[in-house]
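Quick question, first post here. What does this chain look like in 3D?
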Amino acid sequence: MINKKNRLIVNHLCKKDKYLSRVLILFYILSITNAAMKMVLHENGQSIMLVRGLFVILMLYYFIKSIKQFINKGFLFLILLEVTLLLVYSVSILKGNASSSDVLSYAKFSMGVCAPLASIVYAHFDNRNLYNELLKWSYFISILSIISIIGSYYFDPTFTYTMFLSYSLLLPVLLQINQLFVNFKIINFIFVVVSFLVILIWGARGPLFLILVYTSYKVISLPKPTIKNISKIILGGVSIAILLNLALKSMTNYLTNLLHSYGLSSRILNMISHNIIYSGTGRSEIANRAWNMIIQKPLLGWGAVADITRLGGYPHNIFLELAIDYGLLIAGLISIVLIFKMALIFYKPKSIYVDVVVIYILTGFLPLLVSGTYLWSVDFFILIALLGNRNISDLRKRAI
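> Answer (accepted):
Ran it through. Tokens below.
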């Protein structure tokens, strides 16, 4: 009788989880739609505001349907995030090293978008529901991103590169790769291959590299990793790496010529052929300037967003950014705790929760080592929420 009652409660909470997940999914779709309207249709005015308004109404609809669960489980986490961010931005303004307009711009997004979405993820009763919803909608998100990228080229033949839309493909591709290792289906394989090719032709290096990293991780973490199997994987990986290195130039030239025959050009292939695939494209100079800022104020830092005002942009590395914002001591403590929490995930028993966290490490943390800013990264805030959340509630365990 108790189990039956618990199952009814669990089913109700799982339904609320779906509503919470759809708020996040709608945000992802809105972000891609917004970029597509600007890049493909060259819209910048009322049309975009109208679309944003419609999406916000839908997001509010699903949020209201799950408001009770959010209040019970996610509200305190939201308050904690908002108070922390308010303190961070207030201190930055008091220090006077960042312009008030820059601080306000970043505060609006991190407090108005990142923190609420992270709290919605934290409010989930069971992260398996989050995973299932993200996977279900990953196909639509992939199609929308691919159409937006190809549409950008179709309407503007000079278009050769998009960082944002290629990163928008990263989350759905990682979900589909994970599913390939759970239950191989040809549809997932097709989506992964097509997305990979689209990123190769029109995308950034980062998503492509992270796809390869995650695939390697999944291969290494296959069930029953005997010494013999691990040896085979290592030997095979080294052999493939050597062969690719030997044949890389000819392969790159062949693919480049093949694309040229169709009137296409790949930024990534061009970088490989010119031996600049590992270049920082100006990031080394930015890092040197960031270090100079850190040396000037090593103890207390400059305050959040000071790098935007002083450097004209972020330092493209989360550890440098933390050191600029808060000083070496606080930045070091934050970094140690963050790395420790992420490392612990890889020692947990395999589960969907672990899969979700690892995927968000790849979308919300690793990109910040070479690009972007944590104050503007929704996926980074979601990663923080996941690291602080439980795998599965005790109630669901009792109901099973």
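DSSP finds 19 helices and no strands in the chain.
The chain has a mean pLDDT of 85.
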